[in-house]
Amino acid sequence: MSSSLHHPHSERSLAAAAGLTVFAAVMLLIAGFLDIFRGISAIVHDTVYVNTPHYVYAFNLTGWGWIHLLLGIAAVMVGIGLFKVSTWARVLGIVIAALLVIANFLFLPYYPLWSIVVIAVCGFVIWALCIVRNDV
């Protein structure tokens, strides 16, 4: 007779941990790819963006494009790492999502609605990566 402890509550917690990590990975991948597209669009001077003549954090549109392109590439790489349940990916995921929030906050005058959407998505990513300590 083997006596093994079986706790359904702990299994449910582990499933929730895995689910939140997958959620964060998918959302970070989406935010990363969209930031890559936004960066490319800004680099080629797309007419989608509003020119703001008197903005405190004004870079030229090409500069913002490179910032979003690099952050998007980093977000995609970290999102892939989150599927492997790596501790480094969890920590970098929080850092990259926070940098995406800052970059999109500063980008608000150029494309307000989309910046707010990306800020919200990154907020969910940060929440999902911070809420659970133990992963499967």
UniProtKB/TrEMBL annotation:
Residues 21-132 form the DUF7144 domain. It comes from the Bacteria. Keywords: Membrane, Transmembrane, Transmembrane helix. The keyword Transmembrane helix applies. The chain crosses the membrane at residues 12-34, 54-80, 87-107, 113-132. InterPro entries: DUF7144. Pfam families: DUF7144. This is DUF7144 domain-containing protein.
